[in-house]
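Consider the following assembly input.
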Amino acid sequence: MLKTLSIRNAKRQAKNYLIYFITLMVAASLIFGLNSLIFSKDIVFTLENTKAMRYIIGISSVIIVLILAWLIRYMMNFMLKKRSKELSIYMILGIENRSIIRMFLTENLLIGGIALFFGYLGGTFVFYVLKAIVMNLIGIEYSLSFDFSVQAIALTALYFILMYALSAFRSRRTIKKLALRDLLYYEQQNESTGITKNWVAVLVFILSLLCFAAAILLFVKEPLGEGMNFPVGILFIAVFIYCFFTSLPRFVITVLLAGTWRYKGNRIIILRNFTSKLGSMSKTMAFLSVALTISLLLITNGMIAVATYNYRVSLVPFDFSIISENGIANLQEYQNYVNENFDVLEEYVYSIYQSDSSEFTDLNFGFTSYSYMPINSGGFDLCMTYRDYSQLREILGLTPVSLDNNGFIIHSLSYFYDDIEKHSGSNMHIELNGYGLNLMGIYTENFDQYDGFSNGRFFILVVPDYVVSEMDIKYIKYSVMTDNPASYTQYEKLLNEFDTLKSLRSKSGYSNNTGQLEYLDVKMDIQKSNGLLYSTEVLPIWYMALILCIAGVTVLSNNILSEETQHKKQFSLLRSIGYSTRTLDIIILLQLATLFVVPVIPSVILVAFLAPVYTKSFGADVFVPSSELWCNILLVFAIYLLIYLIYYFASYILKRKSTL
Amino acid sequence: MGIMLDVHNIEKYYGNKGNITKALSDITFQVNEGEFISIMGASGSGKTTLLNCISTIDNASAGNICLDGVDITRLKDEELAKFRRENLGFVFQDYNLLDTLTLGENISLSLSVNSVPATEVTERISNIAKKMGIAHLLQKFPWQVSGGEKQRCAFARAVVTNPKLVLADEPTGSLDSVSSQKLLEIMTDMNKNLNSTILLVTHDAFSASYTERILFLKDGRIFNEIIKGEKSRQTFYHEILDVLSLLGGVA
């Protein structure tokens, strides 16, 4: 009998907890998709850095298991509350607690099992999409092939078992501890309704806003991670979140529902629903806000990383260069080979010189402030001749610039432009190898300036040709632009053809001085390393953020949809006193909107303030123009809004169906 | 006729150290086998608390409750489920029927949990349903029938296993007068013909007038006790109203 009941109730729950069920399915799909990716034969063979990827996805998965265990536990508790009456009937009829626990857990396992099954199906699709993306990112040709991993299936099942074991253990304890009397009246229990005195609510609300402002000031004032600003800021945020959500319902009642303002339109119905719902779930809302903030920060983090990595590619205008620190011995042979085997559009050989002093570097425009991107300030500034510079500008399609015999030009990353201009004014003067030179211009077009063996590290001084006559050559570059993009195979052939030539970026996107004399620096290698970074850094971060976000919104959505019978009565009453279906429809939309918007407001404000600070501390703003970074941050908000809107409309449709 | 229920010096406290509420104070009474008794009192007088203690839904803070010689205050948690299914039948104001089951299936729950052979279940459901006047509704779901029919189904579920004691908490509280009367007549009939022992908690004088004896509770204590005896139901009803006016009315 209990088994029949259990199956019947699981079926019924699948309808009532549709959003939760879909979230579990999406989570299972993502988990299985990523597990399949790390066990994929094709990826294992092609990705040099799969160890790191496995490690990072493994760690993310542990966090995901904890987040989902929390969600399942929350939902089990929620179902327990909703079905307390039913469970109490079983107890009254004399069914043992043990049997009830078994039945309750069986139902939940059934829901989890079905979600997992569909997760495997969805996950297979996610896997093939991810695999295509990753292989494309790392520059490997993708062809659809059967790729199946028993380990991925087993690991995903293990995660689900862990998630359910964690949550079931706690739910079992809850049910075991529940006395029949508690269960009979369990549904009537709510979270505490927060602050009840009006003046206290207003005070606490103002205090919460002050704490929020203080936290933002602390985050923005100093660089993130220095001093006590960050921990104290977090403390303020914690106080803000607690105070904000416990005082908001009473604050709305005191301030918004006090005057005649409330009588206009449907304000009373919407705001009363808002305050009553918020009053009974302020802790849930606070927790949700924290989850959304973390999720939003993680997505922003990923977006900033993507923007930075992408921008690195655009900073390098040539398709490839051959570099030597000691004259290119085989230059002619390289040129012959390249012209025979590559579709050459432009090619140019030029030298980078080192001056006898580091006068310009020592002015320190922030070049050395990013410890993980040290600039070689070994007592010299890097220079290039005006002839080479003009030639390169022409090849790159940049407008020509002029230079006097006594002048010099600074070409730097755009980030330093303001600093240099501010410092130099209009009459900057430097001494280079005994020649006095005046600044004639600052240019910031993309000019391959971000890495070692590039056209200066962050900047280069362009000087008249005669100035370099006494200077040592730091390195020579033979740079090539191709008409059609060359393939990895072509570059591999080039490297195989000459024993003297080594790949500069064989392992990572940053130049890697291996002690060889001649290096091949391929732009595509940066893209390849970006692919690795996306796979190992960005993908797991987004994976965590997405799960955290959907878990949070699922909790919110279920809470909103939980009082179906009560709302049905309320709406039928409103209809009987003359409200039209259209008006009731609008009321539902607005009621949901108020509840969906509240937890996200603090998150969005906080992230909007934190994102630039974080960007700066990460050093991303050195390479990427702030307009581009803001575009990326806005894109994050847009992605977030989309996920949010999907849940919002799903909740709206379900609520409308159940109440109207 | 033996004593079916023996409630002795029951006390019930709620709250913690700093704030204790005494819900029941020194309650002592007995119920004979086959007796139809009711407990009346205003809201907050402790009648539902007393019923919860007797029905093992709640624990008494002090005192003893014996049902057919078994002291239920000494039963362990694991033993309570078995005790309930074998000895007690419950009826609540809000029916407490499972929405996912038909009326017939709801009644069958009590039999299944008591391991009544499946072949016997249909017959017993059919018999009890006939007595309750819901035989034609057994395939319907709770939301498809009226409140009175739901309550008769709940009563059928409570008595189908022939429990030693049927506990009814405001069973007519949500019903109209016709449905109430019908249910009370069925309860009386079950009491007389099947010798069921029924304990009814109510604040409604009309419902209480169907019972043989009434205990009045006030502030957690037994305030008065009246017995119907040979009086007509009408006379007994007026007597109840007199006691209630002494009590200060019923909320």
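The first strand of chain A starts at residue 320 and ends at 324. Ask yourself how this observation constrains the way the partners meet.
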